[in-house]
Amino acid sequence: MTRYSAWSVIKNGFSGQKNWSRVWRDPEPKSEYDTIIVGGGLHGLATAYYLAKNHGMKNIAVVEKGWLGGGNGGRNTTIVRSNYMMPGSRFFYEHSLKLWEQLSHELNYNVMFSQRAHISLLHSPAARDATARRYNTMRLTGTDAEIWSLDQLKGAVPHLNYDNARFPIIGAAVQRRAGTARHDAVAWGYARAADQLGVDILQNCEVTGVRRGNGKITGLQTSRGDISANKVGFAVAGNTSRLWQMAELGKLPIESHKLQAFVSEPLKPLLDQVVVFGVGGAHFYISQSDKGGMVFGGDLDWYKSYAQRGNLPIVQDVCEAATSILPCLGRVRLLRHWAGVMDMSMDGSPFICKTPIENLYLNAGWNYGGFKASPASGWYFADLIANDRPNPVIEGYNLQRFERGVNIDERGAGPDPKLHG
């Protein structure tokens, strides 16, 4: 396949952009693979890529029931950051951010990663003190972090509601290296790079059953025929429980919820950062895309569902938060909104671990953190599958932590089990 470069863009410009080769193949499924990754989202594609690149594994397939990036990979607000404090999260997300910083070069594909800074607004001295503790921990362990005064914040983002806000703004917590990326470009970049390393990407190939024998997974039943496998990895976000039950493993400490995201009509450049507002029950985050649309979101819909659409109360809640903190958006029209099916764990942290079945591996429970985690998730999941043991960084991301009472409670971002349906 063509290696992208400035010269290749200029050369194809003279031919009307008609001579580009396919970005990835569309192969027929083989009867058997050494490793099958179920899920053609960002985590599944990244896992396949790193299995081939880092571990030299061959004969790998990614199985996707729809099209690449048609699930949560294409249904999020594209925020990338590593401002985590707890030991189980801090090193993982910092590794992910470092991978993001080189990802376009590594994949030879522009994922449009923009390090525009992540700004969390502060509204009280108590919030500033708590954030200082969090950010000092980050700085002591190699992650960039700053606390801005009100004057610094006004200089960077002058059009926030400083004068009439219900919750006065007193400053901000800032990670400059954080930012956004283009979600579909990330999916296409990983798919293209994995394909070049020989990975078969099987779209429109839905898993309908899991074959077991002698305590192992022997293969998958799919809409495109039965496929045998030596190892199988699940990376299917909100549909994890469905596949878990297909494998006859019972229940997981996961609930599937809808998380809505929104984009406005295009505007002239207005916001050059990611801004987060959360106080008094509000939860809101916003940035501006390369096309000019304001991209924003908030809380879960708070009832369990597999639907990729949202409800009106959350639309109202998020729009109220938007106009509260950025009154200049009051007359801007909403262009579209959508929902991702989130796999919410009980402590707000993920699972990258082995399962009770010897050759089955689990990648799930990403809550709000799935997009930003994609590179490191694939990197560590591939390492687990290839070496059959967890890297020390992800040792705590296992199913047994709830039995032992060692939750990774970064911020309690999981659901409220049994309280809502």
Tell me what the structure shows:
There is one protein chain. This protein is globular. Helices cover 29% and strands 26% of the residues. By secondary structure, the protein is an alpha/beta fold. Helix 2 (42-55) packs parallel to helix 6 (183-196), helix 2 (42-55) packs across helix 9 (370-387) and helix 3 packs across helix 9. It is built from 10 helices and 18 strands. The longest helix has 21 residues, at 87-107. The strands form 3 sheets. Strands 1, 2, 8, 9, 10, 11, 17 and 18 form an 8-stranded mixed sheet that branches.
Q: What is the rounded distance between the termini?
A: 50 Å
Strand content: 25-35%
Radius of gyration over all CA atoms, rounded: 22 Å
Secondary structure: number of strands? 18
Highlighted features:
alpha/beta; 421 residues; 8-stranded mixed sheet; single chain
Sequence-ordered SSE layout with sheet pairings:
Layout: H1 6-13, E1 32-38, H2 42-55, E2 60-63, E3 79-80, H3 87-107, E4 118-122, H4 125-140, E5 146-149, H5 150-156, E6 171-175, E7 179-180, H6 183-196, E8 200-202, E9 207-213, E10 216-222, E11 225-234, H7 240-246, E12 254-266, E13 274-277, E14 284-288, E15 293-304, H8 312-325, E16 334-345, E17 351-354, E18 360-364, H9 370-387, H10 401-404
Parallel strand pairs: 1-2, 1-11, 2-8, 4-13, 11-18
Antiparallel strand pairs: 3-7, 4-6, 5-6, 9-10, 10-11, 12-15, 12-16, 13-14, 14-15, 17-18
Helix pairs in contact: 2-6, 2-9, 3-9
